[in-house]
């Protein structure tokens, strides 16, 4: 291990990484195909967006409710509850089948609550169990493992859907996701706890970006990352569907993007100082420049090239910015007792960004055909990542 010190993590961090990776395995199998399932079941981009609106409102609602009503809940308990709720959501999809079209928003709310409870627990545990010097390594390994799963699982799922055909193919994929959740639930028993998530009045938590300017800068970065996530998540599903019309193509796009990210995620986690700053600028600029590829003739080959390019460069920004967000929390001497408030602030920020992206897509659809509307929002999201890089590079936190 001496030749690869960046791979070393303490046992608590390794256990959390293993649990999160099993959970991500379940999500990697199905995430693209849940949104695609709603797209097909409702027959419109607006139907898929309605499900996503419910999801992000549920995420915000779950975070607000936990800080307001459950400040004494332990992060590991929340993580396990989130896993159970995620499993319940997928069971509902299996039971309802194409009937999900009638309940896109309520199902989105349930999915959002499940995700919100899980990630509130997970993000609190990262702050508790992963030491500051390990965070870059932790996120680098986490995104590398996630990228590996995002290579294998979407390909498997896409070909399974195409092979079985129709609704049954999607339901088979959702059933496979339950296996990953079961593994994560079993592994979560080994996680340590460091007390409740922390009591902080909701109004004080929501005011943190104003009362703590250093956190406020990172909060803006989190909002812009949320905008990028949602615009890309919805937008690329639509563009791939327009270009290829098959579930297998969705899996191929996700796999190619993730395969490229495997190469750089681990490297980005080990960068410090000026190299980390340089990586963020390269990641943001490369991501923005790659968007130009979408303005020519759109076919699957072009989209796969775009996926490979963005997958290769974006971890340079994504991995360091996650570490810098936690470093901004560290600057508050009372961060340990306020961590629930910071996690709430972070979750509200990222989901406001996601909702803003969905709103931009819906407005765009009223003004232009689907493809030009999607391209406009994707371009705005790409340019916004340059702001994220600036905020991260000028955070003033020692690397």
List the helices and strands and how they pair.
Elements (H helix, E strand, L loop, with lengths): L10 H32 L2 H25 L5 H22 L7 H26 L5 H30 L1 H22 L14 H10 L1 H32 L2 H23 L3 H18 L9 H14 L1 H16 L4 H33 L2 H24 L6
Helix pairs in contact: 1-2, 1-4, 1-5, 1-6, 2-4, 2-13, 3-4, 3-6, 4-13, 5-6, 5-9, 5-12, 7-8, 7-13, 8-9, 8-12, 8-13, 8-14, 9-11, 9-12, 10-11, 10-12, 10-14, 12-14, 13-14
Give a written overview of the molecule.
This protein is mostly helical. 82% of the residues lie in helices and 0% in strands. The protein has 14 helices and no strands. Helix 5 (135-164) runs antiparallel to helix 9 (247-269) and helix 8 (213-244) runs parallel beside helix 13 (335-367). Mean pLDDT is 89; it is low at 1-6.
Summarize the structure.
This protein has helices at residues 11-42, 45-69, 75-96, 104-129, 135-164, 166-187, 202-211, 213-244, 247-269, 273-290, 300-313, 315-330, 335-367, 370-393. The chain starts with 10 loop residues before the first helix and ends in a 6-residue tail after the last helix.
- Overall structural domain count: 1
CATH topology title: Growth Hormone, Chain: A
SS elements, strand count: 0
Strand-residue proportion: under 5%
Low-confidence stretches: 1-6
Number of helices: 14
State the assembly state of the protein chains.
single chain
H/E topology pattern: HHHHHHHHHHHHHH
Note the gap between the termini: 23 Å
Class from helix and strand fractions: mainly alpha
Largest beta-sheet details: none
Indicate the percent of residues in helices.
Answer: over 70%
CATH structural architecture: Up-down Bundle
Mean pLDDT metric: 89
Q: What Rg is obtained from the alpha carbons, in whole angstroms?
A: 20 Å
Report the CATH superfamily: MFS general substrate transporter like domains
Instruction: Name the shape in a single word.
Output: globular
